[in-house]
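Quick one, tokens below:
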């Protein structure tokens, strides 16, 4: 009877040990599974970051392209502004009561000038208003100062060269004479 009892004990011990071995294997698989889950989570987060960065790059590029297209003609406009200035100077000669022939010639200048002004206005190029307004360093450049009693200090007395904005961006500052 003792032999039987001993055999039963060993079988019970063996039965107990077997599940322990399975538990150890199960733990190894669980550990492996957890590691894989962590790696998967890390890779998913990395993928999301890369995707977000790509979207940011696309957005920045779209904004840059939009900005470039918005001010596309700025270089051309800067080149044509001196021609507008020269037309204005020539038109001022008509006020000097010159001969009729010269006056007729200048009337042609006036027509060309008015056409150019219309083209500029259609292209959203606007003259910066200055005379009688307070000096604004963002849109004006003070090149001369003078003193006049009838005018407040810091007011623009005269425009020496007109300034222009292109779609709300200053492309040429106005050169002005300011009361001090």
């Amino acid at each position: 009877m003792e032999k039987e009892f001993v055999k039963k004990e060993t079988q019970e011990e063996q039965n107990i040990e077997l599940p322990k071995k399975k538990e150890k294997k199960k733990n190894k698989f669980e550990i492996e599974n957890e590691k894989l889950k962590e790696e998967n989570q890390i890779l998913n987060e990395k993928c999301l970051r890369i995707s977000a960065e790509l979207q940011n790059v696309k957005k920045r590029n779209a904004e840059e392209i939009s900005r470039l297209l918005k001010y596309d003609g700025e270089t051309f406009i800067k080149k044509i502004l001196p021609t507008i200035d020269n037309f204005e100077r020539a038109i001022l000669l008509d006020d000097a009561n010159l001969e009729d022939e010269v006056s007729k010639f200048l009337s042609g200048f006036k027509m060309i000038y008015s056409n150019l002004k219309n083209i500029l206005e259609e292209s959203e190029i606007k003259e910066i208003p200055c005379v009688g307004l307070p000096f604004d360093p963002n849109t004006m450049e003070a090149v001369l100062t003078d003193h006049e009693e009838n005018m407040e200090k810091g007011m623009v007395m005269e425009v020496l060269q007109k300034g222009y904005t292109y779609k709300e961006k200053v492309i040429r500052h106005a050169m002005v004479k300011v009361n001090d």
